[in-house]
Amino acid sequence: MKNKTQIIITLLGSLFIFAVGLFRILTETLDLAPLFVAYVFVISGFIGFIANGVLLRKSQFN
């Protein structure tokens, strides 16, 4: 698998983690996950999304 494909997959994974955490915070459904876990998902998903976006941009210039 090429490096660019791996970056895109991890970018989408980080976006999915961010979306699940944000969904849990905005709606009071998904009572299985505590609210603390939702905040961890949002923070880590956002950081991962930004970091992988920067890596993807750098790989396009090379």
Topology:
Blueprint: H1 3-26, H2 35-61
Number of domains: 1
Shape: elongated
Total beta strand runs: 0
* Residues in β-strands, percent: under 5%
The termini sit apart by: 17 Å
Helix content: over 70%
SSE run: HH
List the total number of helices: 2
**Radius of gyration, whole Å:** 14 Å
Largest sheet: none
Structural class: mainly alpha
Describe the structure.
By secondary structure, the protein is mainly alpha-helical. It has one domain. It is built from 2 helices and no strands. It has helices at residues 3-26, 35-61. The relative contact order is 0.21.
Quick structural overview:
The chain is an all-alpha fold and 62 residues long. Helix content is 82%, strand content 0%.
Can you tag this structure with a few keywords?
single chain; 62 residues; mainly alpha; 2 helices; 82% helix; 0% strand
